[in-house]
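Q: Sequence in, structure out?
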Amino acid sequence: MLENIKVSDVQRNKQLPQVVVRRNKLIKALHDQLQAASAFVEGKQFFKTMQRTLKNKETGAHSVISIERPVHPWFWEDPWGGVYMQVRYGSKVIKVKDGLPTIVVGERENLVELVQLLKDAVAAGQFDESIQDVQRNYGRPIKKGKTKAGGAS
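A: Exactly. Output:
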């Protein structure tokens, strides 16, 4: 029976490359923005459902509840009806094109299409350099030269 099975010594990659992890984080956030943009076009606000685990103080039992939280939109409308958007990685604004962070959307109806375009561009790797810039400038610095005992390594 085992004669027909192909075998290999290939190991499963347990960790994705850091660039892919960061790209996936931005795609997930853009998915939320896509849903928020759809609600914005309809004149509504989008709420994201999240799961939380609570512990009962009396019995010690854990229970999972669902809560709704509003998604903070990356887009806004000015008093004259123009819509603008900035892409964010965490709390930092990413430069989109030519070193500028703000995208002029124009009308509300164009917003959903633009967010989908941005999501596709991130998936294609076009924002990898911008994400790297944000991480390089604002990421946690790596401490070198000291051990826990305070001596040089």
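The helical segments are 18-41, 111-123, 128-138.
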